[in-house]
Amino acid sequence: MVDSLNFPQLTKPTARVQEILSWYRSESNALLGNLFRLLNSGRLAGTGRMVILPVDQGFEHGPLRTFTPNPAGFDPRYHFQLAIESGCSGYAAPYGQLLAAAHEYVGQIPLIVKMNSGDLLYNTNQPSQAVTCSVKDAVNIGATAIGFTIYPGSAFRKDAYEEIVQLSSEAKSYGLPTIIWSYARGEQISKSGETAVDVITYAAHIAAQLGAHIIKVKPPTAHVEREDNKKVVEKYAVKVDPLVERIKLVVKSCFDGRRIVIFSGGEAKSEEEILAEVKAIREGGGFGSIMGRNAFQRPKAESLKLLSRVMDILA
To answer: Is pLDDT above 60 for 3?
Structure first.
């Protein structure tokens, strides 16, 4: 058992949570109940914001690169403990990693089962991921939601779109909401274009159109990738600086802010860089952060302190 700080779960939704749930009225009560649980767990319960700990990098990047900076992370129990003790809203990981330890933490934190994954052992500029578990597996492990990655811009994007439509439909039958990681990549997108403001807003909108209840994207840069979008930005004087303005654009692109949009922490950054980014996310109307490598690759005490400061800003 972990030494949990016992962050309270609310039994009734706050006005803000009621507003957010109203955006999803076409969904079943079972699904709304699981969204309610995500919005009412951990330290940010009731605020309408969330911090999720994702640990899918072992599959995506390999264990040496992922866990050597903090060897405690090789143990799958460590990530449950970090998520619970810090007061995260949820913990996301591939099925195998959750299966190895979930029985020790039943009911202590919402689980998000990452339904697809890829590896780096075959490099390509047309990324794709394989479905690595079933919705029934997610249900049996006690999932609160499923997660899925799409790569708008990849030659294999349409396969992923069709897969998540099918998986999401099945997940809905069990009352599970869908979180889509939407990362634009492919041979027609430059490296800087992967985080360009026009590309990120497009990727977020695609996830919303695919039925995502929660959308995860990277914080956008001020770079505008496509020439047609540059003309629009210039013609209508669209603000793409500073970061808070770009966050507003991404949130607005998701049905005028009527979907939950959270932003990834990305590659290693200094603590002050992370906090400045989180502040912009909050001021721009973002709903929270996904803190992965920037959390679990630090020593535990340092991770807990950083996550506490992140939540202080978002609260």
So the answer is: no
For 10-29, write each residue's pLDDT tens digit.
667 899 999 999 999 999 99
Please provide the distance, in angstroms rounded to a whole number, between the alpha carbons at the two ends of the chain.
Answer: 27
Average pLDDT, the chain: 95
- Whole-angstrom distance, CA of residue 227 vs CA of residue 265: 28
Residue boundaries of the structural domains of the chain: 50-314
Q: Are residues 266 and 218 in contact, defined by beta-carbon separation less than 8 angstroms? A: yes
Ordered DSSP codes for 274-315: HHHHHHHHHHTT--EEE-SHHHHTS-HHHHHHHHHHHHHHH-
Tell me the fold of 50-314: TIM Barrel (3.20.20)
By the 10 Å C-beta count (0-12 exposed, 13-18 middle, 19+ buried), 309 is classed as middle
**Catalytic sites, residue numbers:** 216
CA distances from 149 to 3, 96, 145, 203, 315 (A): 32, 17, 14, 11, 28
3-class secondary-structure state, position 215: strand
**The pLDDT of residue 290:** 87
pTM reported for the whole predicted model: 0.95
Cβ neighbors of 245 (< 8 A, separation 6 or more) are 239, 284
With cut-offs at 50, 70 and 90, classify the pLDDT of residue 6: low
Gap between the Cα atoms of 94 and 100, Å rounded: 10
Query: How many other C-beta atoms are found inside a 10 Å radius of the C-beta of residue 118?
Result: 17
- Give pLDDT tens digits for 76-98: 999 999 999 999 999 999 999 99
Q: What is the pLDDT of residues 210-225, one digit of tens each?
A: 999 999 999 999 999 9
Tokens of 244: 């808070």
Given a cut of 50, whether residue 1 has pLDDT beyond it is no
Coil, strand or helix at 116: strand
H/E element holding 111? strand 111-114
